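Page 42, continued from yesterday. The earlier attempt failed because a stray header line got pasted into the input along with the sequence. Redoing it now with the clean sequence only.
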Amino acid sequence: MVSLRPETATKPVAAPRRPAGTVYRGHEGMWSWVLHRITGVAIFFFLLVHVLDTALVRISPQTYDGVIETYKNPIMGLGELALVAAIVFHAFNGLRIILIDFWSVGTRHQRAMFWIVIGLWVVLMAGFAPRQLMVIMTEVR
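This time it went through. Structure tokens are written below.
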């Protein structure tokens, strides 16, 4: 039986509202944040592996030589290229973040600074990548 009293009538429930400004729409700031985190984690894991394989020298120089020899292949050459790309982006974007934090108008210019970081990254990688690819190709022969 349906009650006709107002206090027991079913009211429509509105969906909770999100506070203004919390929905991220994927502009330059978000991509900068995502790329900075990804490059930071990648650099961390490279440094971890680098410290571990270098520590092999104290344990067994022959094992160390063997590990270093496995690094001399085209896949690792491309990995070195990716590592340099990550380090260069992470460094420039870190400077951008410092400017945003400590420059009074940094937040106003954060979008332009992102594109400056990308431009500098492209210029530096355009100078490094061909040379690294030549080194990789000479190792293949």
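Notes: The helical segments are 28-59, 61-70, 74-102, 110-140.
Reminder to self: strip header lines before submitting.
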